[in-house]
Write a structure and sequence with these properties.
Blueprint: H1 2-9, H2 14-24, H3 26-41, H4 46-74, H5 77-97, H6 102-114, H7 119-130, H8 134-165, H9 168-187, H10 190-194, H11 211-241, H12 244-266, E1 269-271, H13 274-289, H14 298-309, H15 312-326, H16 332-361, H17 363-383, H18 385-388, H19 402-407, E2 409-411
Antiparallel strand pairs: 1-2
Helix pairs in contact: 2-7, 2-9, 3-4, 3-8, 3-9, 4-5, 4-6, 4-16, 5-6, 5-9, 7-16, 8-9, 8-12, 8-15, 11-12, 11-15, 11-16, 11-17, 12-14, 12-15, 13-14, 13-15, 13-17, 16-17
Transmembrane segments: 17-39, 45-67, 79-96, 140-166, 213-234, 246-266, 278-294, 300-323, 335-358, 364-383
Organism: Streptomyces alfalfae
Keywords: Membrane, Transmembrane, Transmembrane helix
C-alpha cells in the first residue's frame, strides 16, 4: 500500500508541492478556532466570536472559485502569492486591532477569508505535469486527500500549542505567517511557474456551465451538511459524557477513520466509471452515520465516529475524479475550488440546522441529521445519474492513453482542487 505513495514522494518537486500546499492552507484550517480563542481572550462574547468565524467562512466560500478562475486565466504565481499576502494582512490587522471595533474586525476577517489562496485546487492541477504516469497522478490525489485529513487534525493542536506557549494573538500571527511561507514555497517552484491552463471558452458561468459538475456540487452540499451537523451534535454528546476531551477524541476518530478509508481506497485499482461508484460510496457513508444515533458510552461512541469517517475520504477522492472529468476545458482550478466552496457552505448549513434540532430534540436527533443529509446526497446523485454518466462510458479517466482506455482501469483517486 505504501509503496505507491513512497514512489511519488521520491519524484522531483512532489514532496515540496504537497508539503507547501498543506502548510499554506494552515491558516484556513485553523482560522475558526483561532478566531474564537482570540475573541474570547480579548473579552468578546461567544456570539461575536461565532459571527466573526462565520464571516471568515462565508468570505472564503465566495473567494475560492473567484480566485480559482483567476489562477486558470493568469497562472499560479500571479494569483496565489498576492492572495496569500492579502489574506495574512487581513488577519494581522484583526490580531492587532482586536474585536472591539466591530466593523473593522468583520472587514478584516472578511478580507482574510476572501483572499485565501486556492492552493488545494492549484496542487491538483499541477500533479499531471509533475508525475509521468496517470496511475501515479491518481495515487497522488489520494495521498493529497489523506494528508489533508492529517492537517485538519493537527492544525487545531498547533493553535492550542501556540496559545500555551505565547498567546491567542500570537497563534493568529504565526499561523498566517507560516501560511505565506507555504504558498511561497509552492509558487516559486518550477512546476507552478511553468503551469498554464488549457485555452477556455469565455462564459460567465465558468466551470459551472458543466451540468455534471453542478450535479456533483449539489450532492456534496449535503455531504458537507452531514459533517457540519456532526460537529454540533458531537458537542452536545460531549457535554453529557465527559466534556471537551470526549469531543476531541470523537473528532480525532472521525479523521482517523477517513485517513484509513482513504489509504485503503487509494492503494488499489478500480474498474468502471467513478460516477457510479460515487453513489455506492455516498450510500455507505450515509449508512455509517446511522449508528451514531445510538449514542452509547464514550469509548463505543469514539469507535462509531471512526466508522462514520471511513467512507468520507473515498467519497471525496471519487468526487475529485469526477470534477476532473466534467470540468470544462481551461477551468480545472476553478472547478475544484467550487467543490471546496460547496462543501464549506454545506458544513455551515449543517451546523446551523443541527443547533435548533439538538435544542428541540436532544443529542440523538442531532445525530439523525447526518444520515438524512447523506441520504439526500445519494438521492441527488441518483436523480442526476444521466447527467453524471454519459452514454457509452466504460470507466475511462479523462486524458488517459489509448492503452489505459482499452484497459478501462482507474487506479486510486483522481483530480481534486481545497477540500
Amino acid at each position: 500500500m505504501a509503496a505507491g505513495y513512497a514512489e511519488i514522494l521520491r519524484t522531483r518537486y512532489a514532496t515540496r508541492l504537497l508539503a507547501g500546499t498543506l502548510v499554506g492552507r494552515l491558516p484556513n484550517a485553523t482560522a475558526p478556532i483561532a478566531i474564537v480563542l482570540f475573541v474570547r481572550a480579548e473579552g468578546g462574547s461567544y456570539s461575536l466570536a461565532g459571527a466573526l468565524a462565520a464571516v471568515y467562512g462565508v468570505a472564503n466560500a465566495v473567494g475560492q472559485p473567484l480566485l480559482g478562475r483567476l489562477v486558470d486565466l493568469y497562472g499560479q504565481p500571479r494569483v496565489q502569492l498576492p492572495a496569500a499576502l492579502l489574506s495574512a494582512l487581513g488577519m494581522t490587522f484583526f490580531a492587532f486591532t482586536g474585536p472591539d471595533r466591530i466593523a473593522l474586525a468583520h472587514a478584516a476577517v472578511a478580507a482574510a477569508g476572501l483572499f485565501t489562496p486556492p492552493l488545494e485546487g492549484g496542487l491538483r492541477a499541477l500533479w499531471p505535469s509533475v508525475l509521468g504516469k496517470e496511475g501515479q497522478v491518481h495515487t497522488a490525489y489520494a495521498m493529497d486527500a489523506i494528508a489533508q485529513e492529517v492537517m485538519f487534525t493537527v492544525g487545531p493542536l498547533l493553535v492550542t500549542g501556540c496559545v500555551a506557549l505565547w498567546s491567542e494573538q500570537a497563534a493568529l500571527l504565526v499561523m498566517n505567517a507560516v501560511g505565506v511561507l507555504g504558498a511561497l514555497s509552492v509558487v516559486v517552484s518550477r512546476p507552478s511557474r511553468a503551469w498554464r491552463s488549457e485555452p477556455r471558452e469565455v462564459h460567465w458561468l465558468g466551470a459551472l456551465r458543466s451540468p455534471g459538475l453542478r450535479a456533483l456540487l449539489g450532492a456534496f452540499l449535503f455531504v458537507g451538511t452531514a459533517l457540519g451537523a456532526i460537529t454540533v451534535a458531537g458537542v452536545s454528546y460531549a457535554d453529557e459524557h465527559g466534556g471537551d476531551a470526549v469531543y476531541g477524541w470523537m473528532m480525532a476518530a472521525l479523521g482517523l477513520g477517513a485517513l484509513i478509508g482513504g489509504s485503503v481506497y487509494g492503494a488499489r485499482q478500480w474498474h468502471g466509471v467513478p460516477e457510479r461508484r460515487l453513489g455506492v460510496l455516498v450510500g455507505l457513508l450515509a449508512v455509517c452515520y446511522v449508528p451514531l444515533t445510538l449514542t452509547p458510552g464514550a469509548v463505543a461512541m469514539t469507535a462509531l465516529a471512526a466508522l462514520a469517517g471511513v467512507f468520507l475520504a473515498p467519497a471525496l477522492a471519487c468526487a475529485f475524479i469526477i470534477v476532473d472529468r466534467h470540468a470544462p476545458r481551461g477551468t480545472v482550478t476553478e472547478a475544484f475550488s467550487w467543490l471546496v466552496t460547496t462543501f464549506t457552505v454545506g458544513a455551515s448549513l449543517g451546523t446551523a440546522a443541527a443547533g435548533p434540532v439538538v435544542q428541540w430534540g436532544g443529542t440523538v436527533w442531532g445525530f439523525a441529521v447526518p444520515p438524512l443529509a447523506g441520504g439526500a446526497a445519494l438521492l441527488v446523485l441518483l436523480a442526476t445519474a444521466r447527467v453524471l454518466v454519459k452514454p457509452g462510458e466504460t470507466g475511462v479517466v479523462a486524458g488517459s492513453s489509448e492503452n489505459d482506455r482499452n484497459g478501462a482501469v482507474e487506479p486510486g483517486f483522481s483530480a481534486g482542487h481545497q477540500a
